[in-house]
Amino acid sequence: MLGGLTLSSCEKEAKILVLDLDIAELVCRDGQKIFEGRILELDGIKSVTANIQTRKAKISYRDNQVSAAEIEAHLSEYGFTIDGVPGNTVARGRLPQCCFNQPFDN
After folding, report:
1. CATH class of residue range 12-100
2. Distance CA 54, CA 56 (A)
3. What pLDDT does residue 103 have?
4. What is the distance between the alpha carbons of residues 82 and 63, in angstroms, rounded to a whole number?
5. Where in the chain are the domains?
6. DSSP characters for 55-94?
7. CA 98, CA 103: separation in Å to the nearest integer?
8. Structure pTM?
């Protein structure tokens, strides 16, 4: 039994990594809420910050539970354009229309 405890304590500890993404559809509060809700569905997500003024998202995650590629694939399945790469076409059609409005430049 003690040997099992020793082995468990030797397992790789999770590192918290940060993924910065440009998300084209982050131009409205509805898009922000949908984005944040979808990303929080994944195990291993520690936090998410989505900024509609800059269209950028910062996602903190545990590397032993989810990878950056899994996060990007998950968001793409819901139609989000990540770093210029459009997501699933059918899912994009389900996003609110305001997600496709261009913000005003001041």
Report:
1. alpha beta
2. 5
3. 59
4. 20
5. 12-100
6. TEEEEEEETTT--HHHHHHHHHHTT--BTTB---HHHHTT
7. 10
8. 0.81
